[in-house]
Amino acid sequence: MKILIIGHELHSHSHSYIFNGIYIALQHLNHKVDWIYNDEEINKIKSENTNYDIILTELYYNKNIPIIENCKYIIQQPFLELFDENNNYQTDNFMFDLFKNINKENIIIWRPYLHLLTFQTPIFTA
Predict the structure, then answer these.
(1) Element at 108 (helix H, strand E)
(2) Per-chain mean pLDDT for the chain
């Protein structure tokens, strides 16, 4: 499985340590993993039409995320809670709107501060 992590460079942000742990674990499971963190590297992937099975990212990088058909996107939910005028929870709708060019069925919203990294179906297999 080919996986792309788009996130903070190691030691540049506290979240970089989460990405580093995921990066090391996926390499240990013999997955092809790339970790990038700037627009130049993202644009290179886009211009070369590089394909990935999974892209793991967070909202800091939402403006320039590569759109790859049939790719699964694991996107960290923001650490803010969004509510509409009727006080209904709206973070999922906000997330889907930000990534409107990605098939909604291919988006997994990851909430690391609410529970451990778990999924309905196993997507990381050895």
Answers:
(1) strand 107-110
(2) 80
